[in-house]
Design goal:
The complex is a heterodimer of chains A (105) and B (874). Chain A is mainly alpha-helical and 105 residues long. Chain A has five helices and two strands. Chain A has a two-stranded antiparallel ribbon. Chain A starts with 6 loop residues before the first helix and ends with a helix. In chain B, strands 4, 5, 6, 7, 8, 9 and 10 form a seven-stranded mixed beta sheet that branches. Chain B has a six-stranded mixed barrel with strand order 15-16-21-18-20-19. Chain B is of the alpha+beta class and 874 residues long. The chains are: A mainly alpha (105), B alpha+beta (874). At the A-B interface, helix 2 and helix 3 of A face helix 3, helix 4 and helix 5 of B.
Chain lengths: 105, 874
């Protein structure tokens, strides 16, 4: 399934790539609202860029909290994130170059 | 499912609202994914709770959206969508049932929605003026307590002396006048008002201004305020108001303002002018003005009433019997505006409720029957493992779909019903144009119909709750709902009975009134109305010249047999009345009498008999003694046992003009001038040749020979020949009189429609019940036929299942009809509220109709073949 690499998608992928693995943590990392993050997670998972699983119950019990669903990037997710970031870097370079040349004129 | 057991108790309390949101949202999630979805959300929430985070509500606020998107995403049909599709399919498989149920619910819901919208818009909505609750109707009360309007001198005194109001405004009934000023002469609806009229209402002009304080009768130029419609029609919406002139009521008026498009007071009006410019109304003993006031801030109705009674008492002390108002009565303006139609509207609303009741009962019994037909089906499904919840859910959705479709049909019916109310009630029910379909009640109607369908639609699911043999399930359902069915038939017939009796009483009232002699002949008569612009016809002689020419032109139209003229047609609204007295009776024993100016041939053209003396003739000129003709009952009242010819009489309406004693030259037959219901009314006629300057509006009664055609166009031609500046209107007498029947026609049309719908639905319902009774008893009938039972007995036996409840319903309906009749008693005439003929007629008709309606399906009894029944038994 194809997915459009939107701003939100990129933010969520980056957050997971940076190790934020739970829904609410991703909200905190990206600053997006729950009504944005969760639908985005479902969408991206369906597109195959994410994979979700329940953490081990024992781990959860040890820290005295219920087990949570955690999200990880798939290989394709990592590729997509890298592609998006390199495109973004290109764009940034292009824009700043353009601005610099304009400023110099 | 949620592993939040370790969370501190305080945390649970804090997060309860967030939890509730998640729980509520979870029902949107497809069932297969619901548990996982819940666990994920709750786990995140609990973790944060344990960590002591605040603001969880904000976190949970995204749950509904997430759940909703989960639901929509599913490519395959999720639970609800599938059930809806199933329900629609099931309903479409039985199109006649579905169509009947939807139409029935639609009629009921539509009737009640339309009527509630009318009641809401007319009776409950505040008046469309600022602070409408502070507007108060001001009326006088006579010595015996009867309500009076206000005379101009009294109004002026009251307005100056009172301290409770920002002002008391006064106005006269609407009149139609010819106005010049636009591109061509036009007939205008003119309202004469006091200068503070608009200020008291609290409305200002859209363009220009309304009347100012200083704009009394004495200012040199007359001012007029136009309605938006008249401004557009007459002046094409020109903005240079100051230069616009309007020639009406004998004066050139400067247009000072245009009112907003939606402004209306009581009736649609074209132009407002000041009554203070006309001296004719300056008679204290002549209460013809309507009055209303606005409470000052801080003043209450009770305070104002006390204040006004002091003021009125003062006036009474000063003027004694020369004023008719002994005290003052205040009431909310809104209530007084709708007082005349309040009872009728509420009754019709109740009638619509009855229709709704019948509709619900009907659909309920149809659903019971449907349930019976499907009971076997359901029992099979139950037996092969469908849960009861599953079946309930399906039936619930099916019922809900039915109610929804019925409600939608109801909106269409309501829209059409509202149009009917607008047409039949126009001019009778105020503020009809403001009525909008009430969304709230549409929802209510939907809920009621939904409840009825769901309640009765679910019955089969509960009946099949335990696993039994299929046939025993069917039989047990059949038994249980026999009582329900009988009850439903009784309710339907009772509601239909009371509505039919109400309609019957109205029909008989209208027939009684129509059969009553009005005192004149309305057949084959036309009324030609002319308003002479006073600027073109300023004096009596010029008007009399015009009237003579028009008279002879009209008389020469082929097919016309007689022509007569009067200032005012009997029975039309705004009849003028005032006290009349003789030298012998004096003021103290004056009689209240109408006043008319007529021409010599009026009596002949109207077909009013002359009892004694002579009619007016050419000798009654301006320089001859003033003469009058009185009605028979008035002559008897003023001069009992004496010959009235040659006696002298004075009429208050005449005061503003000459204030002469009039000599009675003739006595005419009585005419119903004021109301259809009241006979023997006093009326005084004066000749046009002596009082022609009284009125610029004349009505010509044109009597045509049988079958005469083309009168209307000939009349227009002839009038245009005399003066193209003077437009005329022509209508048949019956057409004009229709106005006076309007309150009854309005109630009759709507109540009749409701009664018809209720009766038809009740008959359909009865037929349905009998039809299923036959179905239910097939086996028994088959056995009895096999044993040699007589067909007639079997027929009666099945019919009895409907006839019994129907007769009981009729009896209950008769009792309910007594209350209904009391509610519409003001519209009844010539019949009592418990009129036995109407009651017996309706009862007989209904029982007959029920017999026929139940006979049709009962005939199927005769076709039951014993062999078929035995073969199907199993």
């Amino acid at each position: 399934m194809q997915i459009r690499m939107t701003h939100i998608t990129a933010l969520v992928l980056r957050a997971i790539g940076d190790g934020y693995r739970y829904g609410f943590d991703i909200m905190d990392a990206t600053g997006l609202a729950s009504g944005t993050v969760y639908p985005a997670l479902r969408r991206i998972e369906r597109a195959g860029l994410l994979r979700s699983r329940w953490e081990a119950a024992t781990a959860a019990l040890d820290s005295g909290r219920p087990r949570r669903r955690l999200y990880e990037l798939t290989a394709e997710g990592r590729r997509s994130l890298a592609a998006a970031e390199s495109r973004l870097a290109d764009a940034r370079r292009f824009l700043s170059g353009r601005l610099a040349s304009e400023r110099g004129r | 499912m949620v592993g939040g057991g370790q969370a501190p108790r305080g945390g649970h309390r804090r997060g309860w609202l967030a939890r509730a949101i998640i729980l509520a949202s979870s029902f949107l999630v497809p069932r297969e994914e619901r548990d996982a979805w819940c666990e994920e959300w709750h786990a995140e929430l609990d973790t944060r709770l344990i960590e002591g985070e605040a603001g969880l509500l904000r976190r949970a606020s995204g749950a509904p959206l997430d759940a909703w998107l989960m639901r929509r995403r599913g490519v395959r049909m999720t639970g609800l969508g599938k059930d809806v599709r199933w329900a629609v399919r099931a309903l479409l498989r039985t199109p006649s049932f579905t169509l009947t149920a939807v139409c029935t619910l639609g009629l009921g819901a539509g009737a009640i929605t339309a009527l509630f919208s009318v009641v809401n818009g007319v009776l409950r909505q505040p008046l469309p003026y600022p602070e409408p609750d502070r507007l108060v109707r001001v009326e006088g009360a006579g010595s015996t307590g009867f309500r009076l309007q206000v005379s101009r001198p009294d109004w002026r005194d009251w307005n100056e002396a009172q301290t409770s109001f920002t002002g008391i405004a006064s106005y006269l009934p609407l009149t139609t006048e010819t106005a010049l000023g636009g591109s061509q002469p036009a007939r205008f609806r003119v309202r004469r008002v006091s200068a503070n009229f608009f200020d008291v209402l609290g409305v200002s002009a859209l363009r220009g201004r309304t009347f100012g304080e200083g704009e009394s009768g004495r200012s040199p130029t007359a001012a007029a305020v136009l309605s938006w419609g008249a401004w557009q029609r007459l002046y094409g919406g020109r903005s240079d108001l100051g230069t616009l002139r309007l020639d009406v009521l004998g004066e050139a008026h400067t247009v000072i303002g245009v009112m907003p498009r939606d402004f209306e007071f009581v009736e649609p009006t074209d132009v407002w002018v000041l009554h203070e410019r006309e001296a004719v109304w300056e008679v204290r003993f002549w209460p013809t003005f309507g009055a209303f006031a606005r409470l000052r801030p801080g003043s209450t109705m009770a305070m104002a009433a006390a204040d006004m009674n002091v003021v009125a008492g003062q006036g009474r002390k000063t003027w004694g019997d020369r004023t008719m108002a002994v005290s003052v009565v205040l009431s909310p303006l809104r209530e007084s505006m709708v007082a005349a139609v309040r009872g009728t509207l509420l009754t019709l609303f109740a009638a619509a409720g009855f229709v709704m009741l019948v509709a619900c009962a009907n659909v309920a019994s149809a659903l019971l029957a449907r349930g019976l037909a499907r009971a076997g089906d359901l029992a099979v499904r139950r037996a092969v493992g469908a849960t009861r919840g599953r079946l309930v859910r399906e039936l619930l959705i099916e019922s809900a779909m039915l109610a929804l479709a019925g409600g939608t049909a109801g909106m269409v019916v309501a829209r059409a019903g509202l149009a009917v109310v607008r047409v039949t009630g126009s001019g009778l029910v105020p503020r009809l144009d403001d009525v909008r379909l009430a969304g709230g009640v549409a929802l209510f109607a939907l809920l009621v119909s939904g409840m009825a369908t769901i309640l009765f639609g679910l019955a089969p699911a509960f009946a099949s709750s335990s696993v039994r043999s299929i046939s025993s399930t069917i039989r047990s359902i059949g038994r249980g709902r026999r009582t329900a069915w009988s009850g439903l038939v009784a309710v339907e017939v009772a509601a239909a009975t009371s509505l039919l009796v109400g309609t019957g009483l109205l029909v008989r009232s209208v027939m009684a009134i129509r059969g009553e002699s009005l005192g004149w002949n309305t057949r084959d008569a036309y009324v030609v109305e002319v308003s002479l612009p006073p600027s073109l016809y300023a004096d009596g002689p010029s008007r009399i010249r015009f009237e003579r020419r028009l008279h002879s032109e009209l008389a020469s139209v082929p097919g016309v047999t007689a022509v007569g003229a009067t200032t005012r047609l009997p029975l039309e609204p705004s009849q003028d009345g005032a006290p009349a007295y003789t030298p012998e009776t004096g003021w103290d024993n004056a009689v209240y009498s109408g006043f008319r100016v007529v021409d010599p041939t009026y009596f002949e053209a109207m077909g009013i008999p002359l009892i004694e003396g002579r009619t007016f003739d050419a000798s009654d000129t301006q320089d001859m003694p003033d003469v009058a003709i009185v009605t028979e009952s008035m002559a008897r009242k003023l001069w009992p046992g004496e010959d009235p010819i040659g006696k002298r009489v004075r009429h208050n309406h005449d005061l503003g003009n000459r204030n002469e004693w009039l000599t009675v030259v003739g006595v005419s037959g009585d005419v119903r001038h004021w109301a259809l219901e009241a006979g023997g009314q006093h009326e005084l006629y004066t000749p046009y040749t002596q009082r022609g300057e009284q009125s610029s509006t004349m009505m010509y009664i044109v009597r045509a020979a049988d079958g005469a055609r083309g009168i209307a166009s000939a009349v227009h031609d002839r009038a245009a020949r005399i003066d193209p500046q003077v437009p005329v209107s022509i209508r048949t007498m019956d057409d004009r009189l229709a106005v006076t029947y309007r309150n009854r026609t309005f109630a009759l049309v709507l109540l009749g429609a409701f009664a018809a719908v209720a009766a038809i639905l009740a008959l359909i319902g009865t037929a349905g019940v009998v039809s299923y009774a036959v179905e239910r008893r097939r086996r028994e009938i088959g056995i009895r036929v096999a044993l040699g039972a007589r067909p007639a007995r079997l027929l009666l036996g099945t019919q009895a299942s409907a006839l019994g409840p129907a007769i009981a319903g009729t009896a209950v309906g008769m009792l309910a009809a007594l209350f209904l009749a009391r509610a519409i008693s003001s519209l009844l005439w010539g019949v009592t509220t418990s009129d036995p003929i109407t009651q017996a007629g309706v009862a007989l008709m209904l029982v007959l109709a029920v017999s026929v309606a139940s006979a049709v399906p009962a005939l199927r009894t005769l076709r039951v073949q014993p062999a078929d029944v035995m073969r199907n038994e199993g």
